[in-house]
Specification:
Helix 5 packs antiparallel against helix 6. This protein has 195 residues and is an alpha+beta fold. Helix content is 59%, strand content 14%. The longest helix has 29 residues.
């Protein structure tokens, strides 16, 4: 995923530089941009905001999870109901690995013991910070515009954006990539910030 994002960014920069080199002198008359959407005119800006968002995300979560001093947590889960029976914090220990085991309880119930790094706590602490939540929401708004335009442009680039299906493509782009996906991703920082 990260490699494809990097290729996408580098390709966008390459295309922009190629276009500028092909036409180094500005047009004498201003181009009529009334038919262009705001998102299409600001793809580079939205892309840069998304890039800052991704770097912040990686720094706050991926890097901390992989290389930070994150505690471990052991969950005991009732295998019949799926209920968490207990949660025990284990101080960070070098060379500890995730594990899973089935335990038979005193009353014959089957309990699953799962030991994992406590990413939940990392997320909870990060999303208590107002600036991180605001950056996430701005990043998701930029991502929404970037995805809506990119989704519609992909069909046009592939030559399958016919006027008969243009409305469906536009609707899917707006409702799925512009509204649904960003709202679902925004739910987590908003939930942790207000809880």
């Amino acid at each position: 995923l990260y490699a494809s994002i990097l290729v996408h960014v580098l390709n966008g920069i390459r295309i922009t530089l190629h276009n500028r080199k092909a036409r180094p002198v500005q047009y004498a008359a201003a181009k009529d941009t009334r038919s262009a959407t705001w998102a299409s005119k600001n793809m580079a800006l939205m892309g840069m905001i998304v890039l800052v968002f991704l770097i912040t995300h990686l720094a706050n979560f991926w890097y901390v999870y992989k290389f930070g001093d994150v505690n471990w947590v052991e969950y005991h889960v009732d295998m019949n109901s799926g209920d968490v029976l207990s949660k025990v914090i284990i101080e960070s220990v070098d060379h500890m690995k995730p594990s899973e085991a089935i335990i038979t309880g005193a009353n014959g119930e089957r309990v699953e013991s799962v030991i994992v790094r406590d990413l939940y706590n990392v997320v909870e602490l990060a999303f208590r910070e107002t600036w991180i939540v605001i950056l996430y929401l701005l990043g998701l708004i930029a991502l929404a515009y970037h995805l809506v335009h990119g989704f519609q442009s992909a069909f046009q680039t592939l030559g399958i954006r016919h006027h008969n299906v243009a409305g469906i493509i536009r609707g899917l782009g707006v409702w799925v990539f512009g509204i649904l996906i960003p709202l679902l991703f925004a739910a987590m920082p908003v939930y942790f910030f207000f809880m």
